[in-house]
Amino acid sequence: MIRFEDVTKRYPDGTTAVGGLSFEVSEGELVTLVGPSGCGKTTTMMMVNRLIEPTSGRILVGGEDIAAVDPVRLRRRIGYVIQQVGLFPHRTVLDNTATVPALVGWKKAKARARAAELLELVGLDPATYGPRYPDQLSGGQRQRVGVARALAADPPVLLMDEPFGAVDPVVRAQLQDEFLRMQAAVRKTVLLVTHDIEEAVRLGDRIAVYGQGRIEQFDTPGAVLGSPATPRVASFVGADRGLKRLSVTEIEPGDLEQPPVVRPDDPAGRAAAELRARGARWAVVLDDRGELHGWVGAEDLQGGGSVGDQAHRMSAWVPVGAPLKQAFGVMLQHDAGWVAVLDGARFLGVLTPAKLHEALRRSVDAEARGVARAEVPFDSVADA
Ligand SMILES: Nc1ncnc2c1ncn2[C@@H]1O[C@H](COP(=O)(O)OP(=O)(O)OP(=O)(O)O)[C@@H](O)[C@H]1O
Ligand SMILES: [Mg+2]
Question: Could you tell me which residue ranges the CBS domain spans (predicted)?
Fold first, then answer.
């Protein structure tokens, strides 16, 4: 979908920002460009929408050499989230989001309806936030508007320059999660710049690790972490690979344990007997559709009534597919011996520290054998 063929950019003052770049991003793939400040990431990105012209080499988007495409027409197909968000301060959030559709001639009502839909998609209620101005938003909310605006004309290609750069780590992780969820639904072809290796690993299907003006390694997160191609990549990736692996290994349904299940309208006495029979100290409370209502401890059930009356809210939970690191963080935060794993509202099971360790081992073993983790059946390594 995006193809660089031996692309070099030399600025008039003689600085070679990038030299001899060749790589390809497939349709629907998310590639992160990561590297130290000044290594040429923004330059690479801005050549794709012709805000910067290469000195030599060719760039193809959707098979077309972009040198021959009218830049304005080209940019309609390419959403762009710039490094400093860059919202228009004197326009409302809704109008900011509708900028591109309005530019390309959509009717006002249609452009605004689309903008509202996108605000919804990035987790901002259009009725609340649509009429506000950018300075009435938090940093994280502004970044969400930046992403919504870039998606507004539904471009197949998205360029994102440090889209989650200007917020604290907690909000950043939240924005990353939301973005991954959205990307799973819209499947854009994305080039995303970051200088944070953790973010690159977390978001990228593949990662391009830059040295000065060139790509040192272009591969999957597992390969970059597991076998860095050059000393520079190794030092950039850092020594604490085990910890970083926590952030690339996703929780899979096979990793989970199944605690006893009770229903909200079960009488407490019957539920207590069930727990005793299984030697369990607590159970999850699920309704008939398998949706989670909370959890209940054996002691809670002494009081009588129904299970629903005694249930506690489940605060220690993560979505399925979340990285192990997130589950570990939630465990520490809630001082819990387990975290619930949900698929939407549906309860899948719980992750315990022992299972977390097993999952980590599975991931390291898969790497050592040079297989992608999706190809490794859980059973084959469960006792490794
Ligand atoms: N207009 C320009 N004229 C001359 N040199 C430039 C120009 N724009 C960028 N450069 C240089 O090109 C190199 C690459 O810049 P670029 O903006 O692509 O880096 P970056 O990887 O995005 O860095 P950062 O992480 O700090 O945003 C730097 O050395 C920069 O100083
Ligand atoms: Mg930059």
Answer: 251-314
State the greatest distance between any 2 C-alpha atoms of the chain, in Å, as a whole number: 81
Question: Among residues 26, 1, 35, which one has the least CA distance to residue 193?
Answer: 35
Q: Residue 382: helix, strand or coil by DSSP? A: coil
- Report the phi/psi class of residue 305: left, alpha or beta, with left for phi > 0 and alpha for psi in -120 to 50: left
Question: Which residue has the CA at smallest separation from atom 31 of ligand 1?
Answer: 38
Query: Which CATH code, of 3.40.50.300, 3.30.160.20, 3.30.1360.40, 3.30.310.50, is assigned to 2-248?
Result: 3.40.50.300
What confidence tens digit (pLDDT) does each residue in 329-343 have? 888 888 777 899 999
- Rounded-to-integer distance, Cα 67 and Cα 56, Å: 11
**Ligand 1 pocket, residue 211 CB under 6 Å:** no
Identify which has the larger pLDDT, 191 or 345: 191
> What residue segments make up the domains of the chain, in order of their start?
2-248, 253-359
Q: Which of 364, 355, 300, 296 is nearest to 331 (CA)?
A: 355
Residues 6+ apart with CB under 8 A from 4: 21, 22, 23, 24, 44, 57, 59
Scanning the structure block, which residue is given the tokens 């000044």? 38
Residues in contact with 357: Cβ distance below 8 Å, sequence separation at least 6, in sequence order: none
Which residue is it, tokens 């073993």?
365
pLDDT at 375 over 50: no
pTM score over 0.70? no
Superfamily of domain 253-359: CBS-domain (3.10.580.10)
pLDDT for residue 94 is more than 80: yes
Nearest-angstrom CA–CA distance, 354 and 264? 29
Distance (angstroms) between ligand 2 centre and the Cα of 371 equals 34
Amino acid at 239: A
Assign 166 to helix, strand or coil.
coil
